[in-house]
Design brief:
The protein is built from 4 helices and 13 strands. With 239 residues, the protein is mainly beta. A hairpin with a 2-residue loop joins strand 4 and strand 5.
């Protein structure tokens, strides 16, 4: 009997907390800087798939985006911390995305502007619980439930399936306060960079819409490169 009590005691000392799990995820996914070529496939009911391509420069919490596909080449985005501007070269017009506009979709996709602007380590704004372990796509996962403890969050509740070996989220479900499912994020393909993992293919589904999804594919990426701060200025955006 004492042996089993001792085993249970040792296991309790070695057990990982849900906060530690999310910190490992955060450390795994964050890079100091990156330059990426990205393709978005936007699927809408009874319509042909819409393809958007863009290149983005990322440094810390700042990012700059230029669209590459012909119909959107006049559009550029600039994000500095929690503020985001769109510049339309054809209209020579710049506007700040704020208020209710943050909930609108980016280029008709299932991704909202507030999804893009989310920069904080999410465990700082949520009560975090480890609610179990499950297998997902033949991977053993921790299942984490996050419930908002502050008002200044995009979503009230989140449920995450995190790969136990690689500390990478395989899936996330987003819920409203009334437990209505709002959105799902699924990360289907990954690549390794040094000791980190990043998603090369993911699917976002807005559950308030019928029959839609957005597939995001990172076609090319380089990390930890020096990027001029000039990219992250209004002058560069509006050049």
């Amino acid at each position: 009997m004492k042996f089993f009590l001792w085993v249970a005691f040792i296991h309790s000392l070695l057990a990982i907390t849900p906060e530690e799990i999310l910190k490992k995820v955060d450390k795994n996914l964050n890079f100091s800087s990156a330059i990426m070529n990205i393709k978005m496939e936007i699927y809408l009911p009874d319509k042909s798939v819409r393809i958007k391509k863009f290149k983005t420069w990322i440094s810390g919490n700042n990012s700059y985006v230029e669209f590459l596909n012909k119909e959107d080449k006049h559009v550029r985005y600039l994000k500095i911390g929690k503020r985001m501007w769109i510049y339309d070269k054809e209209e020579e017009n710049t506007f700040l995305i704020s208020g209710h506009l943050l909930k609108q979709s980016m280029m008709g996709s299932d991704i909202s502007y507030e999804d893009i602007l989310e920069t904080e380590q999410i465990y700082t704004n949520y009560d975090v619980k480890l609610i179990g372990e499950e297998n997902l796509r033949e991977r053993s996962c921790y299942v984490i439930l996050l419930t908002a403890k502050v008002k200044e969050v995009n979503y009230f509740k989140r449920k995450m399936w995190i790969d136990k070996e690689q500390f990478f989220p395989l899936k996330e479900e987003i819920y409203a306060k009334n437990d209505k499912l709002l959105k799902t994020f699924e990360y289907l393909e990954i690549e390794f960079y040094k000791d980190k993992v990043y998603p090369t293919k993911s699917v976002v589904s807005d559950k308030l819409k019928i029959g839609t999804k957005t597939v995001v594919i990172i076609e090319e990426a380089i990390f930890d490169v020096e990027i001029s701060s000039y990219y992250f200025t209004r002058r560069y955006l509006e050049r």
